[in-house]
Hints:
This protein is α/β, with parallel strands linked by helices and 536 residues long.
Amino acid sequence: MKKRSIEILKDKSINRGTTFKRNEREELGLSGLLPYAIFTEDKQIKRVMNALRRMSTDLERYSSLSVIQQYNETLFYRVVMDNVEELLPIIYTPTVGEACIKFSHIFRLSEGFYITPEDKGNIRKNLDNWPEEDVRVIVVTDGQRILGLGDLGANGMGIPIGKLSLYTALAGIPPQQCLPVMMDIGTNNEEIRNDELYLGYPKKRLEGEAYLEMIEEFVMAIQDKYPKALIQFEDFLTPNAYALMNKYKNRVLSFNDDIQGTASVALAGVYASTRITKNKFSDLKIMFLGAGSAATGIADLMVSAFEEEGLTNEEARKRLWFVDVEGLVVKDRNDLMEHNLPYAHEHKPMNFLDAIKDIKPNILIGATGAPGTFTKEVVESMTAINKQPIIFALSNPTSKAECTAEQAYQWSGGKAVFSSGSPFAKVVYKGKEYHPGQGNNAYVFPGIGLGTIISNASTIPDDLFLVASRTLANLVSEQNLHDGALYPRLTEIRNISLNIAVAVAEKVYEMGISKDEKKPANLKQLVADYMYDPKL
Length: 536
């Protein structure tokens, strides 16, 4: 009995701490193992929040919440769900970036599943060591391009852990059905590799065929062990991100959040912006600063959206322009990657500022990882062209944003409609309050995942990301737009995820890509009933 009692307090899935009632303590053998007081759910949450607010840094708050998650996940998710706007920046961007940098130094208790080159040939066997038999969502990274921070190796495990906590808190995927995976196949970051406290595989990265063989073995092992699981690829270097996305998107239930999730949430913001500017979507011209996986992924989805509006593929691509470190992406350049080629137009080369003045885009989207690249001159040029310039500074974390919300409003004379990848506080400019919306992938990927799980989808085609974009855009209220936000309040996120999941599932059945024989009668109720709701 003693062993069983202690195990209850150590089992994060059933431990409820001081909310155990007197009779429960007696029945479970917990008498004497807990303080006398019995707390209500609200009091326990209040105690946690009071403690968090007394801490001096966000990293301290992140670490404290991680401990709670490891020992009492019911309390963790209740706290996050009840304080989502305050805590989302703590458990994910921007704080998770700092947590990844310091991962090996703040490590306490192992979470997730690690795969190294020494596991080659044994990945499927090792998966049997994972305690759960019904995994539905897997987030995997190889740590090579963590946010805008670069190659962090195994320290990047904070990303899958954080993303899956969002799947649970924001869309109700039961936590026991989530599996974080680190493909720890080395790091080319010498400083990390030589750190005596580094927890990862301390060699240079696998590359080429050896790398692809490891990924293939992992994906096939998941198909065998967890055939209903969705695989989300996260924070892979651009060439690998595209290669893996294209290799697996039509073979298994998978997607790349940096490419496809970012695209879906950005497109939703663009849809919503037309309600402010009154511009017709099919008439928009959009310029991207940065030509990596995130930016090109957004453009690819926008091509599909333009085509739905009646444009040809060629007409759609001509509305999308890219600028990278070498200047405007044009046909005469011989340094472009394969995913950039469809957006290389016939045009003379020019720098970023000149390209804005010449092409006159309605919308500017930054996905560079280079802070300060939306300068005063850039914002002023956009304002000279547009009555209300749309500015998306999407790079994460906050320190990497192309410009701040305050800069966008000040430099545009209060005319800009601003959105960012990481959160910015409200801005008061000339007596008016602006509440910039955060174009966070968390608005879409949890709902997409939930919808594909409920519908037992076999793959995730672009149509599902388009559906998610339109659904999210339609949930932006007139009050949101009046406040200058292109996205709803995060306090509405569970309902947003529910609506996206239902729309995605409907599309899955419509397209005939469900493994189920027929569509359930009451889809919305089925989704709502599935969603995990932690009760202390």
